[in-house]
Amino acid sequence: MRIISGEFKGRRIPSFGKIDARPTTDFAKEGLFNVLNNMLDFEELSVLDLFSGTGSISFELISRGSKPVVAIESNTKHCSYIRKVSQLLSVDQPTLLRTDVFRYLESTKMKFDFIFADPPYQLEELITLPDLIFKRQLLNKEGLFVLEHSDKHSFMTHPCFSFHKSYGNVNFSFFTLQD
Fold it and tell me: Helices (DSSP H) in the chain: which residue ranges?
């Protein structure tokens, strides 16, 4: 895992043992952040990183000045990995919550400027995430939600869908609040 830009630009994050996460590839992450650079001001951006896995997206956003960054991950090994990377980088972010994403989404009262979700591609509930995010009104007015998924899913008919980008086998659907 490599941090692309910001305070920790170029830093390679070592593996601390075997983890089961499928991190967003550097190629896809670079493509995603090229798009986001034209849409978001990362400084002081409030972020929710769902299915955080290795924390790759969280640490990229922290490196670019986003805060607060809240990372939701249910896997104990992945949470341990994220804590170790936070220590390695000497940062007090992200705020890491070891819990089920859907339980968190149903209970949180927080709103965010940017929400990123990278669920397991085979997760049956993956298709419900956009509806849940917008039903619970978790985005601030100018907020952006990005969902990473396989090419087996299409969200083009969702009322809040904005556009889609793909990088190899990695697909990102972008959603915004519609008037």
Answer: 26-37, 56-63, 76-89, 101-107, 129-135
In a domain, 12, yes or no: no
- Please tell me what DSSP assigns to residue 44: T
State the CB neighbour count (10 A cutoff) for residue 91.
Answer: 17
Q: Which domain holds residue 140?
A: 43-176
Assess if residue 74 is contained within a domain. Answer: yes
Kindly give the confidence (pLDDT) of every residue in the chain, 179 residues in length, as a single tens digit, with 9 standing for 90 and above: 889 999 999 998 877 666 666 677 788 999 999 999 999 999 989 999 999 999 999 999 999 999 999 999 999 999 999 999 999 999 999 999 999 999 999 999 999 999 999 999 889 999 999 999 999 999 999 999 999 999 999 999 999 999 999 999 999 999 999 86
Q: What is the CATH number of the domain that holds 149?
A: 3.40.50.150
Sheet of strand 161-167, all strands in order from the earlier edge strand to the far edge: 95-97, 69-72, 47-50, 112-117, 139-149, 170-176, 161-167
Looking at the chain, the number of H-run helices and the number of E-run strands are 5, 7
Give the containing element (helix H, strand E) for 117: strand 112-117
